[in-house]
Amino acid sequence: MIKVYGIKTCGSVKKALKFFKDNAIEYEFIDLKKEPVSCDKIDEWLAKVDIDTLFNNRGTKYRTLKLKELNLDNDGKREWLCKENLLIKRPVIELENGDVVVAFDEEKYRELFLK
User: pLDDT tens, 2-15?
Assistant: First the structure.
């Protein structure tokens, strides 16, 4: 079963969950606010997707923490992802084959899930 990581109030997460529900695709939802992911899990994802794909530099948390001013390199971004899960671009979807998909893109979802 696919796993969807995100937070319930996130617009992109809501769209992804609606897509799965509308297309009768089973999934397990992991709420990052209730069950933060470990650095090991983040490293697992980073082995499959680029850090700039996973790191959300457009969200409220990024602005609140004033991270733009720190001019973070990849190690710095990884460190912040481990400390603050809300910097993870959402949703993060783990497919059954081990692949990872980040963010909501309806066309991409159609290609992946409605074969």
Answer: 999 999 999 999 99
